[in-house]
Design a protein that fits this description.
Strand order of the largest sheet: 2-1-3-7-8-10
Strand content: 15-25%
Distance between the termini: 40 Å
Shape: globular
Radius of gyration: 32 Å
Number of strands: 28
Length: 815
């Protein structure tokens, strides 16, 4: 089934480099402007495109390296469904290194300085692969674009479309119309392919190859003909880029009718007799009357028959978009289950009897997205701002406004948390007078027993009879590290924490999906870490290689865990919660019917089979047969959830156990290389976001390196922070990184170093190592590979570079 991205959660970055400053190295490409303009028009076309104008960033002039990377990083950070990246300009192969490297050249690029002012394809590939978007599509229209195909694609849904063969130089166009490759690309997106389905990445590649073959050789012998290539990994080839469809061929019976009409022309001569009998000279009046009436009857019958025979089939309107919000741990499983729903009869039976969606047309399209439970709970508590985004942050007007629409996404029609505990947390909030949301009756879809998944057997405990406290103690006694996700954002972690004797344990991941990925990294170490994960059975089920919801981070290997089922922890109950919004009126009847229909299907035998196939246990059998699941024969049964008061108290005690006043110093490299150009707004945004994420009692300060203290250690309001940011300025000398680190107060809780690594490359790490944990934020793509940064962060530290979203990662590290 084709994957249709959700427009508002997708992003596109179109880069066209038309002018070059060093024309002795690279000639101008005026056609690049036409490339980006026409591609943007077709991608955002209301009838064809899968994007909307506000989500498409077009960079034409000045297309310099820093602006291009900034646009790409913004797209990487914002895209959640589809990230589409396009480059039109010069490509250049640098032969000086160990292996030839493809560089995408921007306005200021030169051949001699390609490594400094060009964009290396390997770095671009890694940056795009770090996006949290479900699908990534990269299109390169430049010379030597085919060399990009020599590198393997990332191990995730990723597509690459190139315009030339390996080592080929292609024509730059006539300067007025788009280049040959992009013109063909736009044509396919606008006209469709030979099939009658939407244009996907795979069918686009096939059709581009056909058009290239039709065009043949270039008349200019100095250039090679354009030759497109499409490669996809992780099933990304089915990503829909355009709704253009080729018209269906004329039915055979209608063609036969046309042939009959042609043959009828041969008997026109016979009609001459009728004409003579009716209107010939000397014919009586009644001949003329009979002939005229007969002619009118035949004409009316012919017109009616022809109109009926050529009436086009009714067009199917867009199906009702049903938004389904779930937990990050279950997003892949729920999406796979709902794919099966959209193929069912329930999804094609008309919702209403008014004929607005005829039978046979798709009635319901489900869009599945996820967010941590704490953000979902906060969004429901502020449901008015969620339903009407213009009301969010209207009074305070902070530098960075966190609205529910940004933190979670569009308000949902259905909420499917991993456990009913999440519903308990926010149920009372929906009953307040200012709330604009109403929850329907919750319905349990499936269950997943809580487990302790250990990489080795635990002594003196039973697989199906010990308490959670006994299992955790057995792991501690054997030196096994017990890990869990954050209970504020993970439903499974919260349910398990409710049965632990003390809340102050070490939690290392935001959600259980990330927990499994972190464990996979630890098991690949030498020697591997000894771990025990507190999670749900369905999460561990993703470790098998045949599940659609298996996280890409796990690769193709399977890790072995021994599962222990605590007898005092009820299973998690995957819960279906209808959500009605007071602000939606136009299609409320259809939407309510669709929500009910989806609920009925999920609890039907067909829906239960799909849930079982994704690692859940059905509601009718406590030990549902999931591929002869080898772990538990008799997991604990029953259900139940703690009260909202107990959950709130537990989360408050957990937060208090991990909080307390912290002293945080931000050391900012303000040498002229670091604090200049596009780095300045990035650094200011980093400091603003980081300061906003701190607790009210935390103290922080800003140290300019070189330059000294800009903001003394303490608690500060927004005005003081803004004044400090204005005081930062570039200094034309090297940054004494090592000296600044040695002089930092030893009482600090965290030291954050923000640098471009130019001076760090010559610095030496403090000896002995700092006792304060250090977070290094590198403004370069591969700064964390620098030996200085590795040494600085090897003890309780963290390194972040621009191959990932540095703002979110810094906030996460501080949190």
């Amino acid at each position: 089934m084709a994957y249709e991205p959700f427009a508002s959660r997708s992003r596109a970055v179109l880069i066209g480099v038309a002018k070059y400053e060093h024309t002795e190295d690279f000639a101008n490409i005026p056609s690049a402007n036409a490339n980006t303009a026409q591609l943007r028009a077709v991608l955002t076309s209301g009838a064809l495109g899968r994007l909307i104008p506000r989500t498409v960033e077009t960079l034409a002039e000045p297309a310099i390296r820093d602006r291009a990377l900034e646009a790409i990083r913004t797209g990487v950070a914002q895209a959640q469904d589809l990230l589409f990246c396009y480059f039109s300009g010069h490509g250049y192969i640098d032969l000086e290194g160990d292996r030839p490297e493809l560089y995408l050249m921007t306005r200021e690029s030169t051949k001699a300085g390609a490594r400094l002012d060009g964009i290396p394809y390997t770095a671009l590939l890694q940056l795009l692969a770090s996006s949290r978007a479900e699908r990534v599509v990269l299109v390169l229209d430049c010379c030597f674009a085919g060399n990009a195909g020599l590198l393997p694609l990332p191990d995730r849904p990723f597509s690459l479309i190139t315009s030339s063969r390996v080592g080929s130089r292609i024509h730059k166009g006539d300067g007025i119309d788009p280049t040959a490759f992009t013109a063909a690309l736009v044509r396919v997106l606008r006209e469709g392919t030979h099939t009658h389905d939407p244009v996907t990445v795979g069918t686009l590649g096939i059709r581009l190859g056909e058009l290239a073959a039709e065009q043949g050789e270039m008349p200019d012998a100095d250039y090679d003909p354009w030759q497109p290539t499409e490669r996809s990994s992780g099933g990304a080839g089915d990503t829909v880029l355009s709704q253009a469809r080729r018209p269906r061929p004329t039915p055979a019976w209608l063609r036969a009718l046309g042939r009959i009409r042609l043959r009828l022309r041969r008997i026109v001569g016979y009609a001459a007799f009728g004409w003579t009998w009716t209107a010939g000279p000397g014919q009586p009046l009644w001949h003329r009357a009979v002939g005229g009436c007969t002619a009118l009857a035949l004409l009316a019958g012919g017109v009616t028959g022809y109109t009926a025979a050529n009436r086009p089939a009714p067009l199917c309107p867009a199906p009702l978009e049903l938004r389904v919000l779930t937990s990050p741990e279950t997003r892949g499983a729920v999406a796979s289950v709902l794919d099966a729903f959209q193929e069912s009869a329930e999804a094609t039976t008309p919702l209403t009897g008014d004929g607005s969606r005829p039978g046979g047309c798709g009635q319901i399209n489900t869009t599945v997205y996820s967010a941590p439970t704490d953000k979902v709970a906060a969004a429901f508590r502020d449901s008015a701002a969620w339903a009407e985004p213009e009301r969010a942050c209207a009074s305070s007007q902070p530098t960075v406004c966190d609205s529910p629409l940004v933190e979670v996404g569009a308000h949902p029609d259905v909420w499917i948390p991993e456990s009913s505990s999440a519903y308990t947390r926010v149920r009372e909030a929906a009953e307040r007078p200012e709330s604009v949301v109403d929850f329907g009756t919750p319905r349990t879809l499936a269950r997943s027993p809580a487990v302790v998944a250990a990489t080795e057997d635990l002594p003196s405990v039973e697989r199906n009879g010990s308490t959670l406290a006994q299992l955790v103690k057995a792991a501690d006694d054997k030196g096994v590290t017990v890990r869990s996700a954050d209970p504020r954002s993970s439903d499974a972690a919260l349910d398990l924490l409710l049965h632990l004797p003390a809340p102050a344990r070490s939690f290392s991941a935001a959600d259980d999906r990330e927990l499994v990925c972190q464990a996979r990294t630890g098991l690949s170490d030498s020697p591997p870490q000894r771990l025990a994960l507190l999670t749900a059975e369905s999460t561990v089920a993703a470790l098998t290689t045949d599940l659609d919801s298996r996280p890409p981070c796990l690769g193709d290997s399977t890790d072995s865990y021994a599962l222990y089922y605590p007898r005092d922890v009820p299973p998690l109950d995957l819960t279906y919660i209808p959500v009605t919004w007071e602000t939606s009126h136009a299609d409320r009847a259809d939407r309510t019917a669709a929500v009910q229909r989806l609920s009925d299907w999920l609890t039907s035998p067909a829906g239960q089979r799909e849930l079982t196939a994704q690692g859940f246990r059905t509601t009718t059998a406590a030990a549902g047969p999931w591929r002869d699941y080898r772990y538990a024969v008799r997991p604990v049964t029953g259900s139940g959830s703690a009260s909202a008061a107990r959950i709130s108290a537990l989360l408050a005690s957990y937060a208090a156990a991990g909080e307390g006043r912290r002293d945080i110093l931000f050391a900012v490299d303000v040498s002229s290389s670091a604090y200049s150009g596009g780095n300045i707004p990035v650094i200011k945004s980093l400091l603003t976001r980081a300061a906003k994420s701190l607790n009210p009692e935390d103290r922080y300060g800003i140290l300019a390196v070189p330059g000294g203290t800009v903001l003394a250690l303490g608690t500060h309001n927004g005005g003081q922070l803004d004044a400090a940011l204005r005081a930062l300025g570039a200094v034309k000398r090297d940054a004494p990184i090592s000296a600044a680190l040695k002089d930092a107060p030893s009482s600090l809780s965290v030291l954050v170093l923000i640098t471009d690594d130019e001076d760090s490359a010559r610095a030496t790490a403090p000896d002995p190592p700092l006792k304060t944990p250090v977070v290094v934020v590198s403004l370069e793509d591969f700064g964390c590979a620098l030996a200085f940064n590795k040494k600085l962060t090897e003890h309780d530290g963290t390194c972040i570079d621009t191959s990932e979203d540095i703002a979110d990662r810094l906030v996460e590290a501080l949190t």
